[in-house]
Amino acid sequence: MSKNRIIFHIDVNSAYLSWTSVKRLSEGLCDLRDIPAAIGGDEKSRHGVVLAKSILAQRFGVKTGESLFEARQKCPELLVVPADHQYYSETSHKLFELLDDYSPLVERFSIDEGFLDYTGLEGIHGEPMKAAFELKERIKATFGFTVNIGVAPNKILAKMAGELKKPDLVHSLFHHELEEKLWPLPVRELFMVGKSSEKVLLNHGIDTIGKLAKCDQEYIIKLLKSHGLTLWKYANGIDNSPVVPTGTTAAKSFSNSTTLSRDVTSLEEANLVLMRLAQTVCMRMRAEKYECSTISVQVKYSDFTVFSKQTKVKVPTDDTDYIYKTFKNLYEALWNGKPVRLIGVGLNDLTEKDESQMTIADAIASEKHKKLDAVCDKIRNQFGKGAISFGAELSGKKK
DNA sequence: TCTGGGGTCCTAGGACCC
DNA sequence: TCTGGGGTCCTAGGACCC
After folding, report:
1. Which site in A133, A201, A210, A379 is 20 to 30 Å from A354, CA atoms measured?
2. Domain covering A254-357, topology
3. What pTM was computed for the model?
4. CB of A283 under 7 A from strand B?
5. Can you say how many angstroms the Cα of residue A166 is from the centroid of all Cα atoms in its chain?
């Protein structure tokens, strides 16, 4: 790896809210970025959380992830607009296409954040800070939303630079700037310092990133184990991880969960949900040509306590019917009879599907299911997720 | 009508084996 | 008669991210 890297971190400002605003402007509606506003889920179906907020809403203390109920208590005039995930996904795709123009090394970190390795590109786009500024302006002119760009010698510093003052700004964060720009910040603002780490750090008088950086390494490891070492390195701007282009790494898990619009209290109802989850999660896994060896189910009760159960299967599988039956068994073993708020399923221990490894017996046994699954996937892709259901699910719907 | 969904990584404890 | 001990696998739970 080159010693003097230049990494960009590109982060869409209030992504969901900005993207919805762009769409609304084209429809003659007001700009959510100019008022206290939030993108939120549907409260009637118990999805009422803040997914993104405007800077004005943020000034009222509105936070991403909190309930809309709480958000409105802080900001009664808050305008809440529903999310449009399809549109977000399309917009994100276009943004990354533009980034791919700039560098062959672009890593998609989330729907609205990416890293770009600018090392060696000065000859093409010019001096890094100037290039970052031009990129930011080009995104704004092309799409109508703004981004922050962090410019730094590695990913962690680029990310932290991107988190400095927002919106629509380019910040650098080189090693000689740490003391001035990074170290005065509250320790909670360091990437990977969440609620629990913050609590431990504050209890030991470590309230800024600078104090964490100057701590004895062994001391932090005693406090927070291996995570402590990670945080200590981040605070000191140490990170050698490469920018990994999207699509070049293998998936590790697929999961699908749903908060139910009302609590589920019977096995029959739960089974219908498990079927639906099995269909979508298996279809997604098959589309990327994986099989799983670990199958898991998660339950959140109405008191918000969460439990999970998993099992390992001897032969990796992608068979919806088999996986559904496994979900069902796990759920029955897991469920304590109390009202259930959320049901989730997961497929882990993935292996890339290699058809040549199948024995003749396996092939014959699973042939029927595979053909059926393949046909179902095709129809769902063409006509939508609801196009095909299991028999039991249909009869359930009729009730 | 208070609290989403999809991920990755880590740790602790028990089972099991030599 | 006094409960070794290391290694590995599996499971459950938790932290953290966007």
Report:
1. A379
2. Dna Ligase; domain 1 (3.30.1490)
3. 0.91
4. no
5. 21
Could you tell me which of A319, A348, A314, A346 has the C-alpha nearest to residue A330? A346
Distance CA A241, CA A18 (A): 30
Which position has the higher pLDDT, A150 or A362? A150
Beta bridge partners of A387: none
Between A211 and A399, the more confident residue is A211
What DSSP character marks residue A241?
P
pLDDT, tens only, A194-239: 999 999 999 999 999 999 999 999 999 999 999 999 999 999 999 9
Span A92-102, average pLDDT: 96
What separation, in Å, do the N-terminal and C-terminal C-alpha atoms of chain A show? 62
Angle between helices A391-398 and A267-287 (to 10 degrees): 130
> Span A1-173: which CATH code?
3.30.70.270
Mean pLDDT, range A235-249, rounded to an integer:
95
* Architecture of domain A183-245 in this structure: Orthogonal Bundle (1.10)
Q: Are A297 and A345 in contact (CB under 8 A)?
A: yes
Q: How far apart are CA A364 and CA A155, in angstroms?
A: 49
Picking from A159, A104, A112, the residue whose alpha carbon sits closest to that of residue A139 is A112
Q: Which of A43, A97, A113, A134 is catalytic?
A: A113
Write down the domain spans for chain A.
Answer: 1-173, 183-245, 254-357, 364-389
Q: Which nucleotide is nearest to A295 (CA to C1')?
A: C11
Strand B: list positions under 7 Å from protein Cβ: 1-12
Long-range contacts of A383-387 (CB under 8 A, 24+ apart): A385/A279, A385/A280
**Residue A212: closest CA among A194, A225, A193, A239:** A193
Cα diameter, chain A: 67
- How many Cβ atoms from other residues are within 10 Å of residue A41's Cβ? 18
